[in-house]
Amino acid sequence: MFEMLRSATLAAATLTTGLMAGLFYAYACSVMLGLGRTDDRTFVDAMQWINVKIINGWFLVPFLGAPILIVLTGVLILRGDGRSALPWIVAAFVLYGMTLAITFAVNVPLNNRLAAAGAPDDIADLAAVREAFETTWNRWNIARAGTSTAAFGCLVWALVLPGSTG
User: Fold this and answer.
1) Cα distances (angstroms) measured from residue 153 to each of 39, 66, 103
2) Quick check: is 146 in a domain?
3) Measured by CB atoms within 10 angstroms of the end CB, which terminus of the chain is less buried, N or C?
4) Contact indicator for 23, 60 with CB cutoff of 8 Å
5) pTM over 0.90
6) Whole-number Å distance between alpha carbons of 40 and 127
7) Considering the domain boundaries, does residue 48 fall inside one?
8) What is the C-alpha separation between 99 and 116, in angstroms, rounded?
9) What is the number of domains present in the chain?
10) How many CB atoms lie within 10 A of CB 59?
């Protein structure tokens, strides 16, 4: 039973981390490229709505669940066999922690500033608002796509290590 729980938490940690890596990757290689081709009003309006609508269970469960599941997996591995996976679990936690740090230190404050700019029809200089947001947000989104993808890779490796899943 213990091995099944450990396997399930490692699988869930891998899945939630993979979902987040995929989300950040999708923004980097499609969403932001597409929005980058739009006019300033469309860009600001779309990003303001995306930033409101992304705060939902479909996003929050994997976003916040991933680090919890990674820690739980590490604890369960410490209490059983399969310790060869532990360094990979720790690395995944550090990398996903970097993802969270980037999100809360850079992307969320930029999102908040974009929201504070007001409705697009009320913004006097849409180009300046967009310029203050877009390049920095994109750069750091690519960084968190990298850190979350690396965390996902560490968890995938932990899954395939002999004895890590019972």
Assistant:
1) 37, 14, 20
2) yes
3) N
4) no
5) yes
6) 6
7) yes
8) 24
9) 1
10) 14
